[in-house]
């Protein structure tokens, strides 16, 4: 079933969903089940599975020269989605990214997903490679997320890259996109960021999942601005608890989001690692309850491999 259909059938009830990372290359599929098994009591209608672009490594050759090799450290998104749907009977939402994929790679991935009866995808540009100061698209790939949305929507209309296909099978993907309550760091201002977001919705996106935030006012303001801009699709808040003191600085540096002053005070007042986790959990519970009371369609938790902490939060909110 489509993500948006779950929202419609909920009749105003706030759902709970989770986002997971594929294991590192060479890892076990059982690690995904160990992550999700304790979370299934909260009856998530769908589980997001991230996709990570390739990175480059340099292997020294006997000649002394270095060979540049592209590797994916976290492969397996499509297979993990199929395994999740088979084991739990819930929908999986694979992330599709621009980085590291040609348009043909993307089309082939979408064909595989369609064959697996996966009806939902989250279309995002993705990050720059490590040690690159800006996003560089793959040769023959997409530069922006809107182009990815358009390709998916083309397939929904039976249009494939091969122009010799006159009567292609029409897929039926529900397309999600990312939203930024504090604007995307590359956007010059929020107004232009909203224009780009609306363009993706107009191109075929059906719902938005926000980047993590730690001040609910930012989310509520973002929703108001979206509605004023004519963006009327569901907007799902993305949440992550603070579990380490260094995250007070690393998350703003990496995700360009501000920390609420009260959260910072609470974490800094903690005397040990356990108290830091408690402070982060309590703040995320506070955020979740306020958002739920406001009638958000879904609380979407970024697990980051930490099911125990996420389970504490979900148990307190549900």
Describe the structure.
The chain is of the alpha/beta class. It has one domain: TIM Barrel, CATH 3.20.20. The chain has 11 helices and 11 strands. It has helices at residues 3-10, 30-36, 77-88, 103-115, 145-156, 190-203, 216-228, 247-255, 261-269, 273-293, 307-317, and strands at residues 15-20, 46-49, 55-60, 66-71, 91-97, 120-124, 174-179, 207-210, 235-236, 238-239, 298-302. The protein has a 9-stranded parallel beta sheet, sandwiched between helices. Helix 5 packs parallel to helix 6 (190-203) and helix 10 crosses helix 11. The chain is globular and about 65 Å long.
Properties at a glance:
alpha/beta, globular, 11 strands, TIM Barrel, 41% helix, 9-stranded parallel β-sheet, 11 helices, 318 residues, two-stranded antiparallel ribbon
Shape: globular
| Count of the domains | 1
Radius of gyration, in Å, reads 20 Å
Major sheet: order of its strands? 9-8-7-6-5-2-1-11-10
Write the layout of secondary structure elements.
Layout: H1 3-10, E1 15-20, H2 30-36, E2 46-49, E3 55-60, E4 66-71, H3 77-88, E5 91-97, H4 103-115, E6 120-124, H5 145-156, E7 174-179, H6 190-203, E8 207-210, H7 216-228, E9 235-236, E10 238-239, H8 247-255, H9 261-269, H10 273-293, E11 298-302, H11 307-317
């Amino acid at each position: 079933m489509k993500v948006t259909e779950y929202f419609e059938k909920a009749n105003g009830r706030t759902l709970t969903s989770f986002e997971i990372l594929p294991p590192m290359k060479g890892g076990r599929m059982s690690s995904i089940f160990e992550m999700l098994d304790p979370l299934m009591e909260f009856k998530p209608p769908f589980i997001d599975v991230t996709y990570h672009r390739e990175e480059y490594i340099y292997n020294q050759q006997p000649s002394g020269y270095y060979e540049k090799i592209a590797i994916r450290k976290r492969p397996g998104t499509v297979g993990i989605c199929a395994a999740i749907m088979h084991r739990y009977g819930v929908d999986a939402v694979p992330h599709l990214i621009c980085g590291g994929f040609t348009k043909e790679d993307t089309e082939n991935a979408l064909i595989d997903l369609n064959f697996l009866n996966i009806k939902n995808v989250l279309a995002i540009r993705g990050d720059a490679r490590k040690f690159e100061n800006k996003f560089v698209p793959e040769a023959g790939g997409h530069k922006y997320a809107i182009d990815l949305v358009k390709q998916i929507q083309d397939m929904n209309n039976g249009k494939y890259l091969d122009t010799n296909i006159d009567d292609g099978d029409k897929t039926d993907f529900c397309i999600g996109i990312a939203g930024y309550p504090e604007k995307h760091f590359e956007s010059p201002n929020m107004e232009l960021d909203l224009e780009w977001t609306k363009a993706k919705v107009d191109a075929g996106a059906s719902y938005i999942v926000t980047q993590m935030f730690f001040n609910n006012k930012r989310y509520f303001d973002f929703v108001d601005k979206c509605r004023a801009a004519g963006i009327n699709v569901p907007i799902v808040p993305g949440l992550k608890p603070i579990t380490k003191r260094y995250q007070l600085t690393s998350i703003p540096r990496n995700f360009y989001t501000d920390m609420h002053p009260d959260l910072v005070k609470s974490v800094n007042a903690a005397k040990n690692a356990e108290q830091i986790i408690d402070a982060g959990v309590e703040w995320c519970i506070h955020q979740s309850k306020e958002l739920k009371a406001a009638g958000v369609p879904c609380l979407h938790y970024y697990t980051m491999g930490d099911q125990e902490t996420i389970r504490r939060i979900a148990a307190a909110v549900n």
